[in-house]
Each structure stands twice: as structure tokens, then as C-alpha cells.
Amino acid sequence: MFIEEKKNSQIFQDSNQLSPTSESEVSELIKEAYKKKFPIDIHGSNSKKFIGYNVQSAKSLDFSNLSGVIEYLPEELYIKVKPGTLIQDIENILEKNNQELSFEPTDFGYIKDGKSNKGTAGGCVSCNFAGSRRFKVGSVRDFILGFRGVNGKGDVIKSGGTVVKNVTGYDLSKLISGSFGTLVALTEVTLKISAKKPSQNTIIIYEKDPKIISDLFNKVLSSSNEISGAVFVPDEPKSKKFIPNKSKAFKLNDLDQKGAFFAFRIEGDQKSIKERIKDISNEMNLKKYKTSNLDIYQSDLFWKSINSLQLFSETKNNLLRAVVPPSKSQKLMVFLKNKYRYFIDWSGSLFWIEVPEDENIKDLKNTITQNDGYVTIIKKSEDFQFTEKLFTIDDTKLMISKKIKESFDPRGLFNPGKMYKDF
Questions:
Q1: pLDDT in tens, 240-292
Q2: What is the rounded CA–CA span in Å between residue 125 and residue 103?
Q3: Which domains does the chain have, with CATH numbers?
Q4: In the chain, what is the straight-line distance between the N-terminal and C-terminal CA atoms, in Å?
Q5: 139 close to 130: Cβ distance less than 8 angstroms
Q6: Which of 262, 259, 270 lies closest to 302, judged by CA?
Q7: Which are the contacts of 40, defined by CB distance < 8 A and separation ≥ 6?
């Protein structure tokens, strides 16, 4: 044990790029960082590294070598993996048993460099970005059954297990998800998985009026027909500041990309889908709209395009992620009309908004917060002015977040300044 500690101490001293292959190595390296008060940049595949402020660190902790499936029991509906395991590899394994990650991990690869990169399990959990089923099934944090990790002192901590049950005490998974690696260096994650639906169809409604779109979102939310996705893609803004990506992102035979459209997804067996489409047609009075129906293959491609943000592929502009109550989506649609490229997900709650790099985003952020929403600036343009905070948070929540950070990472070593400049 003494020899191993000495070896890790030497590795820490000699290299700025640290690539541990085990939990014990992670623990020892962080203990060294704690002793020497060296800040650490924690990352996996770097698929989300551009999100947040640049981390000023003395050492880099690369988890790409700490990867692989630890345990997968399809009949128990869970998979346990190391943090550097690629999400794509997990999905390929689950696909063999007709299973999936129901929260639909967001793929940021296209906006980063024009190709798919869903990142790692550790990054997925740490950032808590979920796709189109979020309003129906929950977010990433709702699918974390347990985790192991190392805190800022080098101590190994664990939370949860492999079964879903009610327990007394606070679920630490809720804290670490969305913390962007500022609280814990994850070494193991257990995720709840789901059976994949055998088929799906997507109904397209060609409409652009904000009031009608808002009404359609409300009908989706109140429907008993288990609609698992609902989005609105408006007309393209008439400005040369936006790369025309709409036709590339939604290149499907049965989808007219020229105008605005509303889309919703139904999943299940074909018989069930047919019956529910009939019921939904009456619920939404679809006869009065121009519509089209995407079959299983086109539907699958459509939602992959939505969840990989291909509408903004390789944009040089600022990209904002805003969440508002569904009741306020109409007001925000009216404000955004013809000014920005955007689309709405989560049946009216989630807005992805592209803002030209030479425009001030203050008015837009104010409008969102005035409508009870919050904003995260996901991608920054080259000329981005750091007078605007990247993460929206009020003073009370900021103080609570700081206290939580101190309890997990007392010397502020993990990804310092990643989310908030003060810590």
C-alpha cells in the first residue's frame, strides 16, 4: 500500500495530465491534490468541455481510461458502468436486448464540430441534460440508482444501490447531477434502463401561430394517449447571421421543411399507435390542419436530429438553453419571432435559442427570467462578453450551492470556476 501511494505521488508530481485506471488511483491522486492545494480539471471525452467557464487548473484528471461495463442485468433493468464509458457504447449494448436510456441523452457533438458525440456516462450524469422525453419520464437524475465517487479530500463516497426503493435521508444523486464535476469525481454510475418500444410514429402539424402552438402543447400535456415527445420548429429567421441548417437537419421524405411545424411522437406497438392516433386526431381536431405522418424510420431520424441539436450544427453564434413554465411559452415565442433561430422541446418548456455573436443577449435573458424561466449559455461565440453570467441563479441558491460545494470539496479543487466565477 505504501509503495502504491508513493508511486501515485510521483505520478502526480511528474505529470499534469493524469489518467487513472481505478478508483483507488483516483483517490490517491486527489489526496495529493488536496495536500498540495492543486486545482483539478475533471473530464472524460471533452464532449461538453465548451459549456461553462474555462477552468484554471494545475492538473487535469482524464477519466477516458476508467471505462467499461461493471454489471449489466437486463432482467433487473439496470446497468453499472465506469464514468469514462461512452454513452454510444452503452446504447449499443442495450440495443441488443431491446432496451434503452429513456431520458434520451443530449448529443452536443454537432454543435461542437459537426458530428455525433454523446460523451461519457460520467459527463451525462454530471451535466444532467435530457432529451425530448423529459416532460414524460423525467431527467437524467431520475434514472440514477446509485454512484461511487471521490470527494475533494480523496475520500471514497457512495450513494444508492441497484434497486428503486424509498429510503430515509437525502439522495446525493440529485446533488451531483447538474454539478458539472464540481462536487465529486465519479468512479462508478448505476443507471436505470427501460424496455424499448417496438415502434413509433410522429405526426407533423404545419402551423406557426404562437397561440395555436401553445394550445397544442397544452393538449399534449393533458392527453391520456402517452405522447412521448412534442416540439415546435418555427420559420427560419431572414438573416444572413444564421447558417441555413433546417433542410439538412430534417431531410425526410414526408416532412416539408420550408415552413414552421409542430411535431409529436407516439410510441408502442403498431396496433396501439393506430388506435391512439385516431383518438388524438379527435382530441386535437387534426382535420383542420395540414398534417403528415412520419413512419418508424423517419420518426427515429427526426428525434435523433432534435436531440442532437442539428439545427444549430457548427454554429459560430451563442446558443442558449432556456426553461420556462409551459404557460409562459407563448409570450416567449412572440418575443423570439423572426429575431432568432430557435426550437421548443419538452412540450413547451425547453427553448434552444441561437443568438448572433454581435448581439447583446441581456434583453433576451431578462425576458426569460421575467417569465419565471432560467437560462444557461451553452455555447459561446468567439466575441462573447463575460458581463453575462453563463448559469442563471439567484443569490439565495448561489449561497446554498457554495455551502454544498464546501462540504464536498472544501478546498475548491474540482473544476474551479466552471459554473460560477466565485467558486
A1: 889 888 888 999 999 988 899 999 999 999 999 999 999 999 999 999 999 99
A2: 11
A3: 2-64+402-408 (3.30.43), 69-195 (3.30.465.10), 199-379 (3.40.462.10)
A4: 34
A5: yes
A6: 262
A7: 30, 33, 57, 58, 59, 60, 61, 185, 413, 414, 415
